[in-house]
Specification:
The chain has helices at about 15-35, 40-95, 225-235; strands at about 100-105, 125-130, 155-160, 170-175, 190-195, 200, 205-210, 220-225. The chain is an alpha+beta fold. It has a domain at about 70-235. It starts with 14 loop residues before the first helix and ends in a 6-residue tail after the last helix.
Amino acid sequence: MFALCLPCSLARPGFCCQIKLVSFVLEVGWRCALKRNLGFTLVELMVALVIGLLVVAGAIQLFVMTKRTFNEMEGLSTRQESLRYVSDVVSADIRTASSVSLLSDPALLPVNCNPGDDSAGGSEVLEMRYDQGADDRYSRVNDPYCATPDMPLRRVRYFLNEVDDDGRGVVRGCYTCGESEEEKSPVMTLLTGVNIGAGVIVNGVYQVFIRLDGESDEFSFMSVRREKVVCELSPDIDC
């Protein structure tokens, strides 16, 4: 854009300079408006696209990490509750038992309470018996395991079974009610996805080792029979 200037003889002094100044301002404004109408350059668009991708990638990574943490915490909570349930149930059965023993011969077990040929390494069976005491009464009468009061609990057994090729085990148990040991119960499942090491019994204390799948650490708990404690603390009692 250029400015039109009248001869100074035809205009008053300074008028021509004013026209030039106005023309310059109009030209600068026109160029700025033209530049604004051109939009973003390719470089600016590429930079904005990269920044947007980085923000989206960060948000996705944060979501994945949060989801993974939630799943791990949920799995840990489930395992903790399962282990606590097993330890509470087994410990209660051991404490109230008349005798505790480990059986390794499957032939000694009833048909519907047998670890079977697929048991983990010929899984030893933890057996608790509940015999009549000196007053001819059973220690576990009106037990939740048994249906009626006239069917006292006589025996509880726990063992480990393999369920797949990866060594995932299932802790199972069975119980016998009634004065006749022919009354046998079906097998019940207590805990899945575990590996159990060899248990030991020393001076009436039974210790079992449980290792969760995918972990090298073992969870162990110990339980002792109450009768054994009474006998040890009171030598004058005939046990």
